[in-house]
Each structure stands twice: as structure tokens, then as C-alpha cells.
TrEMBL record:
GO terms for cellular component: external side of plasma membrane; extracellular space. PROSITE patterns: IG_LIKE, IG_MHC. The lineage of its organism: Eukaryota, Metazoa, Chordata, Craniata, Vertebrata. One of its GO terms (biological process) is immune response. Keywords: Glycoprotein. PANTHER family: IG-LIKE DOMAIN-CONTAINING PROTEIN, MHC CLASS I-RELATED. It comes from Vombatus ursinus. SUPFAM superfamilies: Immunoglobulin (SSF48726), MHC antigen-recognition domain (SSF54452). This is Ig-like domain-containing protein. It holds the Pfam family C1-set.
Length: 340
């Protein structure tokens, strides 16, 4: 099975994937289409029954109605799969054999912002060629993809790709989010803000690790990033756990920042953005804790003890003097007067 990858930043937003699998000799004799949102199968279509099957009960009838045109782009000869068959495999010596084509298209949105997208082909279970928003050039993994690459990089191919991505990925994603009944039937019952912690770990070799952890939040869309002096940038080695589920159905995300020895380690902050926050929340990293050596602590304690004993001795001496009388001779009588 082909490994169809998709680049994602430290952002967790709804992502729609369209997986197209087809088979045939010189034409697409059979094909199926699978649509996925956040790793959940939403609906499917296959050529034999020519019917869209919605697999999740929360998907409203509104989307089911607008999804009747879902297979149309795959039936037209302008679809890349037809071109790939005609240019890449009809001329091969083994063209009389059946071949399996997998077409992957994924997009990610946050409200009205298009976060990213990716397109990838696989042929007979092997990666064929791909393109994404981070690299606007087609990457070829098989020699047979070279003829198709020329067409895909032409103005005609670029227009088809942009139109298909806009209409059948981003547009449909917004339709899904608009018409779905997630909130009404308990899929998204409440809004929960994230609890955030930013501990630090100092390694013996001088490296410093900060972990920014957001947990207990819902819905899924959240963004975490590091800033220094209020500025975005790459300050060290960064990593992310990805958004993971908690036992109570809330979500969890952790990003890490490792700084090399000698870094100032100050003015770093973890910035968190979530639907429950009116403005981005800023969490400064903790400063390094000063650890005193044992002999220094012992000396400090002894100094305090000596001072306490000295004060106690002076107080006792003063009390004794206060209680001691001074004899004064007046008119042949002896009176006792207290010292002042």
C-alpha cells in the first residue's frame, strides 16, 4: 500500500482528505472515493453502485444533498487520473495488465483561512509523484511520472489543480463544517479552554529544554508556538507531540524547544491560541533555579544560629541588670532604687 504523507505544522485544525483508488487497463474500469475528516471516515463512493454513502450519523442531510455531485470530477476526462493512464501506462510493454492508481488530495482549514494542502499519486502500491504547499514543484518518485510531470507543471495543469483544490477540497470542507450537525447531537457539546504549563529541564551539558503543554481543551483547533522578545523565529530544535486525545475526550498538545549551551534562556514565551481565548495567551518560560551547595547552606544555617544565640545572651544579661537593685544612703536610711 502506498504511503501518502501530509505535512502539518504545530496547528491542529480540521483536515479533509480525499482518497481516490482506481483500476483498469487503458481506462478506469473501477474506482472508489473515500472522504476523511480528522482521521474519521465521512462518506464514500464507488463506480458500481453510483451512490454516495455517508458513514457518520452526525452528517446532516444538507451535506448529503450537496454531495450528489461529488463523483462528477472523477468521471471527466480532464481528471489527472485519465491523463496519467494515457501518458504513463498505455505505452508500456505491460499495458495489457491491470494497474491500480491511488490519488490523494488533502486540505486543512481554520475558519476561513486555508492552512495547507497536498496532492499525491501512487501507482501499483508505490509512491509516484507529489506536490504540497511547502514545495510548489512536483516531486517525481518514478521515471514513468516524467511525462505526467510536464503536463502537471504547465499552465493548463496548474489551473486544473488550483480549481480542483479550491472547489472540491477547501469549498467542500467549509460545506461540511457548515451543514454538519456536530453541535446539535453532542459531538461538540461544550467549549473547553486549555490548561497550560511550561516547565524547564536543565541538562548537565548546558542544554535547556522547555515543554509547553496544553491539555483539556475542546474543540480541536489550537495553535502553539514559541516567541522570543515577542518575535517569531527558529530559536532552537523544536518538536511537537501532535494533538492527542485524553481519557475524558478532551485533547492534548505539547511542543518542545531545546536551546544549545550558552543561550540566554530568557525572554522566551509560549503563545497559545484557541477558540475559547479572546486574545492569544502568553506564558513566559521559568528562570533557572539557583541551587546552593551543601557547605554554603550549612554555613548559612550556622551563621543564623550564632546570631540567634548572641541576641538571646544579650537579652538575658539585660534582664538580669534590670532586676538588680542599687543601694542609696539617704538620712541614715537605706533605700533601694532600681537602676535606670
Amino acid at each position: 500500500e502506498a504511503q501518502l504523507g501530509f505535512w502539518r505544522p504545530h496547528i491542529s485544525t480540521p483536515m479533509r482528505e480525499c482518497q481516490f483508488t482506481a483500476g483498469g487497463k487503458t481506462s478506469l474500469l473501477d474506482y472508489t472515493i473515500l472522504h476523511v475528516i480528522d482521521d474519521m471516515d465521512v462518506c464514500s463512493y464507488d463506480k458500481h453502485n453510483k451512490q454516495v454513502v455517508v458513514k457518520e450519523s452526525w452528517m446532516s442531510l444538507h451535506f448529503l444533498q450537496c454531495a450528489t455531485w461529488l463523483p462528477l470530477p472523477y468521471q471527466r476526462h480532464s481528471h489527472p487520473s485519465h491523463t496519467l493512464y494515457s501518458n504513463g501506462y498505455q505505452t508500456r510493454p505491460d499495458s495489457h495488465h491491470n494497474h491500480t492508481l491511488q490519488f490523494f488530495m488533502g486540505c486543512e482549514v481554520d475558519n476561513d483561512i486555508d492552512i495547507g494542502h497536498s496532492i499525491q499519486f501512487a501507482m501499483d502500491g508505490e509512491d509516484f509523484m507529489k506536490i504540497d504547499d511547502q514545495n510548489d514543484d512536483w516531486t517525481v518518485m518514478k521515471p514513468e511520472a516524467e511525462p505526467f510531470k510536464s503536463l502537471a507543471e504547465s499552465n493548463f495543469g496548474s489551473k486544473i489543480r488550483d480549481k480542483a483544490m479550491k472547489k472540491f477540497c477547501f469549498h467542500m470542507m467549509r460545506k461540511i463544517l457548515q451543514y454538519s450537525s456536530m453541535k446539535e447531537n453532542g459531538k461538540f457539546p461544550v467549549l473547553l479552554g486549555p490548561g497550560v504549563t511550561v516547565p524547564r529541564h536543565d541538562a548537565p551539558d548546558g542544554r535547556v529544554m522547555f515543554n509547553c503543554t496544553a491539555t483539556g481543551f475542546y474543540p480541536r483547533s489550537i495553535q502553539l508556538h514559541w516567541e522570543k522578545d515577542g518575535q517569531l523565529g527558529v530559536w532552537g530544535q523544536e518538536s511537537s507531540s501532535g494533538t492527542l486525545p485524553n481519557a475524558d475526550s478532551t485533547l492534548y498538545l505539547q511542543i518542545s524547544l531545546e536551546l544549545p549551551p550558552g543561550d540566554s534562556e530568557t525572554d522566551y514565551t509560549c503563545v497559545v491560541e484557541h477558540r475559547t481565548l479572546q486574545t492569544p495567551a502568553v506564558y513566559p518560560v521559568p528562570e533557572k533555579t539557583t541551587v546552593q551547595r551543601p557547605w554554603v547552606m550549612t554555613l548559612s544555617v550556622l551563621t543564623v544560629i550564632v546570631r540567634v544565640l548572641s541576641c538571646a545572651e544579650a537579652f538575658i544579661t539585660w534582664k538580669k541588670k534590670k532586676k538588680t537593685g542599687i543601694r542609696v544612703m539617704r538620712g541614715g536610711k537605706t533605700n533601694s532604687a532600681r537602676a535606670r
